[in-house]
Amino acid sequence: MNNRNNMLRVIRFEKPDYIPVYFHINSSCWHHYDQNATLCHAMGE
Questions:
Q1: Is residue 41 part of a domain?
Q2: Which candidate among 13, 25, 26, 30 keeps its CA 20 to 30 Å from the CA of 41?
Q3: How confident is the model over 1-45, as pLDDT tens digits?
Q4: CB 10 within 8 A of CB 20
């Protein structure tokens, strides 16, 4: 399944292969906390 078809399934709640997730680490957190720890936590490691 290509990205477009998967996105259409996501929008229609039709059991997509994967659910796209976009996240952002704001600048304050990135500079305040250890960057490796912040990145690992964001990636679920």
A1: yes
A2: 13
A3: 899 999 999 999 999 999 998 878 888 888 898 888 777 766 666
A4: yes
pTM of this prediction exceeds 0.90: no
Q: Structurally, how many domains does the chain consist of?
A: 1
DSSP string, 7-35: HHHHHHTS--S---------HHHHHHS-H
Q: How far apart are CA 25 and CA 21, in angstroms?
A: 13
Residue 37 lies in domain: 21-45
Q: In the 8-state DSSP scheme, what is residue 2? A: -
pLDDT value, residue 44: 63
